[in-house]
Automatic annotation (TrEMBL), chain A:
Top-rank lineage group of the source organism: Bacteria
GO MF: ABC-type transporter activity
Keyword Transcription regulation: no
Keywords: Membrane, Transmembrane, Transmembrane helix
Species per Swiss-Prot/TrEMBL record: Streptomyces triticagri
Protein name stated in the entry: ABC transporter permease
From TrEMBL, chain B:
Keyword tags: ATP-binding, Nucleotide-binding, Transport
Domain ABC transporter: 4-228
Protein name: ABC transporter ATP-binding protein
GO MF annotation list: ATP binding; ATP hydrolysis activity
UniProt similarity note: Belongs to the ABC transporter superfamily.
PANTHER family xref list: ABC TRANSPORTER RELATED (PTHR43335:SF11), ABC TRANSPORTER, ATP-BINDING PROTEIN (PTHR43335)
InterPro entries (alphabetical): AAA+_ATPase, ABC_transporter-like_ATP-bd, ABC_transporter-like_CS, P-loop_NTPase
Keyword Nucleotide-binding belongs to the record: yes
Top-level division of the source organism's lineage: Bacteria
Amino acid sequence: MYDPTVARLTYRALLGRRRALILFTLPALLIVIAVAVRMFSGADDQVASDVLGGFALATMVPLIGVIAGTGAIGPEIDDGSVVYLLAKPLKRPTIIVTKLTVAIAVTMAFSAVPTFIAGIILNGNGQQVAIAYTIAALVGSIAYAALFLLLGTVSKHAVVFGLVYALVWESLFGSLVSGARTLSVQQWSLAVAEKVAGGELVSSDVGLPLAVVLLVGVTVLATWYAGQKLRTLTLAGEE
Amino acid sequence: MTTIRIDHTSRWFGNVVAVNDITMTIGPGVTGLLGPNGAGKSTLINMMGGFLAPSTGTVTLDEKPIWRNEQIYRQIGIVPEREAMYDFLTGREFVVANAELHGLGKKAAQEALATVEMEYAQDRKISTYSKGMRQRVKMASALVHQPDVLLLDEPFNGMDPRQRMHLMELLRRMGDAGRTVLFSSHILEEVEQLASHIEVIVAGRHAASGDFRRIRRLMTDRPHRYLVRSSDDRALAAALIADPSTAGIEVDLTEGALLVQAVDFGRFTELLPQVARDRGIRLLTVSPSDESLESVFSYLVAA
């Protein structure tokens, strides 16, 4: 279910293009914010939680997920170079699972690692805040990568839809309509973080069992469906 | 024997019918798929390559369906028309990756690069390649597993004459070795030079099939229309119409020219300068008025 050549091509495509700049910029921004906050307001658990929850988990993780998830397959389908993968005796789900693995690894590396570093800078992992949000970022990375990889497989406008989901649905609707929060990867990840932190600082609108079911369900379904779509991917000619 | 069989196959996109009830068999040797732009050649090749499902009918390789059958690619090599091909890799990295995806190693990749004579530039990034170089690396990636069937969509586009000759030679060798090679083109001369067998597609329909000489004859024997200007149009017209190679002549007063309809192309092209010289008439303009490929093809459809 994993092909090292597909993985190598995907890594190089993801980290070699302009989109890699955004991959580096967002975590750098988070670290800068963390340093600034620490300098101006000292080590404060609540502030640390606000920064990590408000910026790292709510904005950075989904954005990195959009870039890595859609970028792992979208551009290849758009420009047609995916034909070189498809014209091989290679099971379509293997291509998807490999690309998902790469997308997850990249999302984790560029979101969970900086989240942990920022947490340490902010309050030295007081009340397990840094660990909690890092785990939330790790868990979120998996679901986001699967979701956005599917988007990249089915739509030419995957980045736009991804951004709309990440920014409009999760951030805007999530803050206005409480029901929207149930259908939010961010809230599911927070449920896991809440369990880890244990205290009052991290909280989610979704219970842990439901969150886990939804995380696993969405990841598995999205991956399965992306594999199906790739099997019947139509590469229209130039005509 | 590796044979692609297309059986009563159609493909439509919404209301547009790209391929209309085509039945053909592509066997070993080099086959040219000829047709004007937009005739449905790419659609047909995409169906043979397993990238497009037929709307109706079947496309099979030795009785095995091609659509949704990834194992078929052990036998098929594809050279797509589109340019995109992992530009951030070097030529060698690209061909090695293609070899690995077939479960082969660097040796197979190196052989394929040698076959297309791209070793000299194999360590340069593909983004720096010319169109002809890209075409050859694409070719190497398709040859890496020595497929029985090679499908090429407009392979000569953008190649210079030397590269074209080289690729033709390569395809000819593959055909002679008993592989099934199919390439599409909208240029008659290309197809004529290379293919022993031609399939003509016009407006999604199968217009003609067979030996290129027969098709060439069909194309050249059709009535040709010429626009002729001379120092004495009427005297020329009288002399031309006396010969059976000319079916009709119209004196176009507004154009100040003759519109000649010739039925025997070979004879007419010899007759015209002879008649003019014998009668001391100077020819000012001789231009075929329906030489566009489309008109040639539409004649074929009617034939």
